[in-house]
Structure prediction request, 263 residues.
Amino acid sequence: MTTFLDYKITSQNISARIEAIENQSFIKREATYFRENISKVSSGEELMNDYRLYNFAMKAFGLEEQIYAKGLMKKVFDGGVKDPKSMANLLTDSRFKGIANAFGFAETGNLNMLITSNVEKIVQRYMQLELEIQTGESNQGVRLALYFQRMAPNIDNWYEVLGDPALAEVARTAFGLPDEFAQTNIDKQAAYFEERLALEDLKNPEKLQKFLQRFTAFWDVSGKAPDMVNLAAHGIAPIAPLGSNALVSIDPSLLTELARYKI
Prediction:
């Protein structure tokens, strides 16, 4: 099965899949604990002092790798989002701004978490992320596509994409760029993508699907997919890998077509 087909099947059955995840015993317990206890928390420090609440919150915003960076997270929560110079606003990764805004400790104390709909939004984020994680166990490309689909409507500039490792991976793969491209000047990276894709297009569901179809096609021929598709059917012949990165040789006519690709 191609990554795109796997992604399409998953994305078309998200509600049923999330419902199944919600009924998994551990996840059900953690979601119940979050719902019952988050209203008791009124600051980032209090949140971090309850590991179960903190872990749930961080995972909901894809920040599990920052769980032990409590000094940083305290600044993110305490600074909020209204001050342009707050930590959440200074960090290029939009996930920090997202979590600071959702809890709103700096602006409202625990008011945000007294509103059931706000709590449920975080719970649903957690479930969505768990779906992406579990999907990624069999195909990381599908996980990336689902994540990009979820984040795309809120992307305002290419710096937000480049500041998020997963979004940047999708963008580089979709345009056939090597991983080394990430080491170039960030302004030049942003300019490169700006010339080729208007972010407004990603807010259009049909154009977003075309972009993700392009990403998944490149993913399947990049050597990253677990089960490679028929390369010949894509006009692509594999060549010997260099170092740890599998390379492909693309037919010139296909390369020209892809270079002109516009959503």
About this structure: The first strand starts at residue 236 and ends at 238. The chain has two domains: 1-138, 155-263. Residues 129 and 232 are 34 Å apart (CA to CA).
